[in-house]
Amino acid sequence: MIPKIDSHSIPLIREKGVASIVDWFDLQKQSFYILGWSYLRNHRQMEELFYRSIIKVHKELPRFKNETSFETWVTSIIIHTCRELSNHRSLQVSEEREQPIDLFNALDQLNESEREAIFLRFVKGFSQEEVAHILQISVEKMTELLFSGIQSLRKIMGDGLTFHGCREYHKFYIDYLERTLDRPIKIDLEKHIYHCHDCQEDLGTFQDVMLTLLNLSDRLENTQVPSGFMETIRDRLAEKEKLRLQKNKKRVRKGLFIAGVFALLIGIDFFTGTSSKLYYTWTEEDSELRSFLQQDLGERLNLESESNGVKIKIKSAIADDVQTLVFYEIEDIDEPNQYVMNYDDGVSVENQNEIMSPEANPRYYPPDLKFDLNKKEKNVYQGKISLLPLKKDNGTIQLKITKLQKLIRDSFDRNRITAYENVGVTGEWNFEIPVTKQPSIEYALGKETEVEGIPVRFDKLTIAPTATVLQYGINNEQSEKRIDALNFDNLVVNKKKMKADLYGGISYLETSQDMNWSTFQTHFDPLFGEKPKEVNVQFESVHLAFDDHKTIELDASKEYPQTFEYAGSTISIDKVEVGQTTNVVISDHEVKNRAYETLQFQILGEDGNESNSIEMDSEGVLVDKNGTEYDMNVNPVAYEEIEQPRFFVTVQRMKLEGINTGEKVIPKKLEIFGYNAMKYLDDVVKISLE
Predict the structure, then answer these.
(1) Would residue 159 be called left, alpha or beta, if left means φ above 0 and alpha means ψ between -120 and 50 degrees?
(2) Residue 348 in contact with residue 467, Cβ under 8 Å?
(3) pTM (2 decimals)?
(4) Whole-angstrom Cα distance, residue 253 to residue 235?
């Protein structure tokens, strides 16, 4: 076991810093090496384990309280680091762990919780209470893990043998064998075992596994730590400290330079009245935030909070009637990781109901991996997140962050739109952000046009600091052809072009206007300091829905495939297969010049009612504006890199079952209601406001 450290030693370790922690680790290296060896696969990972653990212990030491022993506290940090490294593929190399002991192989096959509990209790010798504290679980849960782990080991090492004894006595086995069971329960268990042959066998084999584990502890004490192991770690830590000092010197020089420039600007402003534009040109690297600050639409905040080795800085917040835009910077202090915030996962406003409007929705801004600032340092990410707009003219946002998501770089799956993993880092970062809502200006448009023969009117243009919003209506009187969505490429105001929002820029509005019209909004880039005289609206594409009814008779006794004509295409019914689950497959692989992209249909049974579909899936291809096809299963391409893609469904499969269990579905009709299609547009609508 690790030599004990009393409470009087902790202040001395804190005073001497990381060097004293390295010395302490050096004394206990064999014990910790054995612990790490139960998780990791090679020498390189073991070196990384010690390096990261020492850094974390040094950083968290000011927060250490004598609620538990120092050894237990350090062990919990090592366990957490082991978990991180065992899942970190980039550190996996061909060097395999030597496994002279069969039990080690068996331990590897347990789930993580069982393996940790068994290793800490029987191999490392911690008490059940200490192990429960390290793993942050109850003692009862700890006992369950020990039993299930030993049970699994017996099954793995005993050719599939399982426990056949009485389940209600299983929970007493460990305490009985360790002689810590209360006497009344011990007597009752011994009486039962005397009469129960299955429990006798269970307890005997259970004892054998425990003895094997205890013997493993003795054998592992002879494990040799590679020579020069701690020296390599000392060298890495020294290099890290050297880089830190160099970075601090650069920051000091940069701070002195900025202070000098700031003093100069104050003098210029005093004598000439120059605005703050020049100041922010020098001091703010983020061009988007710089534009807001130069227009006096917000102020620099630089609020900071640190948790779990990650520092978050709130740089500024810009609020208007559209949204509250928060600019942030996230720095991983010790590791080369970049993290982002996700409004739906780990980010919340604790006083949202008090100060924010529920009538809007937060905007989505994807992580910007191409942003120059995010290429500079591997451990720093600068981004923005959208919150709801304010109810009042000003307020203080109580922002709470409990989870950050880790960025992916050089991902092999280019078809993924998200740029971060589902897992990240947890902690607690709290901020109180003062914000003032900036005014928006609305301009009535009153312009009407037609798109594919359907009336479209432009109602209003709203110029807000964080977005330019176009409100328009689509006439929905026609039944045979409708507009499902209208996409814009850009908006030109006074010869300044603003691109349409690629991510969620279209929203439906509930209004009390004419029921024959549906009202929508599309968001564009912000426009600063302009009074619009002329607005040019550039269309991009329109999604149409067509009503075109057709019914095709189905007969499962016929041979398939069979074809039929619809919307100028030849469609194949590939399969109609009746059974406990009925399968229907239709396809159309010819997409060139095809009028439709997807069909709207249903399958009718013998009684004329729609069949109950339990599963439906489809295949398809993406086709860009130039007619180039992309089969995403063969050649994955990032969706946003394709120019105005259309998705053509080529195969549609349905599994049907009856309403009652065991009832077969006999399909009789394929009823098509209509189809959907997208058309490219290049029309420009000019609207004069003079």
Answers:
(1) left
(2) no
(3) 0.59
(4) 27
